[in-house]
Amino acid sequence: MKGLIGKKLGMTSIYDENGTAVPVTVIEAGPCVVTQLKDNEKEGYSAVQLGFEDQKEQRMTKPALGHFKKAGVDAKRILREFRVDAAEVAVGEVVTASAFEEVSYVDIIATGKGRGFQGVVKRYDFGGGRASHGGGWIRRTGSIGMCEFPGRVFKGKKMPGQMGDKRVTTQNLKVIQVRPEENLILVKGSVPGATGGIVTIKEALKRK
Q1: 29, 1, 37, 4: which is closest to 186 by C-alpha?
Q2: CATH class of the domain at 3-115+165-203
Q3: In terms of CB atoms within 10 Å, which end of the chain has fewer, N or C?
Q4: 19 Cβ partners below 8 Å, 6+ apart?
Q5: What is the pTM assigned to this prediction?
Q6: pLDDT band per the 50, 70, 90 thresholds, residue 166
Q7: d(Cα 153, Cα 148) in Å, to the nearest integer?
């Protein structure tokens, strides 16, 4: 099963065999414990549920705590599901970064940084208005209305609003190094979200 929960630790650069500096994102991948196995008969689909990072029991609700005690594992802060055709692991088994030693490309899912309420220039890269001959609307939206027909603003019009803080998937990130003894995976380029954010790592779907 090629799936793990991890934490983004930050970015650095390393040198490859040709002496070229490669920008990488360092991810603490696991260790994750299997908390539940789901099958087609009971849940209607086949999946493996993993838990990441220990949590104090007094901070858990009783139903959540019972879920972990049923699996015979310590309480975990983060839970994620990974769809599989057939589970190759058992409840209570620990999955580490070594699962990605033979993987060349990964897809990483995380929550992007929140930018707050932003205008159209920053949010959608609008050009804005002119600064000469009076100006007055340099970073504004501009006209959004219609003629007499249909006489309204279409749904989905790009306008100022909340930017960021959404689920983002970055595909086909090249795996540069896997360090199982340190639970680290180094991938080329940037990963969504802030430093310290939780990420979901999967084997690349579109590129093998």
Answers
A1: 29
A2: mainly beta
A3: C
A4: none
A5: 0.84
A6: very high
A7: 12
